[in-house]
Write a structure and sequence with these properties.
It is built from three helices and two strands. By secondary structure, it is of the alpha+beta class. It is elongated. Strands 1-2 form a two-stranded antiparallel sheet. A hairpin with a 2-residue loop joins strand 1 and strand 2.
């Protein structure tokens, strides 16, 4: 997640142009409810869904953390179990 679309677009543009992700979908206007430093917080955020490879994940994660304004940015991996072969091949082709 990111605090706003501008930051999300900035991070996505850099990460994609550096070949650390094939693309990023930015989903505007989500609401996040979480505990931070002992308080329950409710914030509007945007959701960023990046597509990358498992081989690049550590470099990708480090770069997102470096670019992000949050003290503890949300960077998690969800494995792609299956997908269109052409799409998965494209991810491999444009990353790394």
């Amino acid at each position: 997640t990111a605090p706003n679309e501008r930051e999300a677009e900035g991070i996505a543009g850099k990460v994609v142009s550096e070949g650390l992700a094939a693309c990023c979908n930015i989903v505007p206007s989500i609401k996040s409810i979480y505990t931070w430093k002992g308080e329950v917080c409710t914030e509007s955020e945007v959701l960023c869904i990046f597509k990358t490879t498992s081989d690049l994940f550590e470099r990708f994660k480090e770069r997102v953390v470096e670019l992000h304004s949050y003290e503890v940015p949300e960077v998690v991996a969800v494995e792609i179990k299956a997908g269109s072969r052409k799409y998965l091949d494209w991810i491999d082709e444009v990353t790394g």
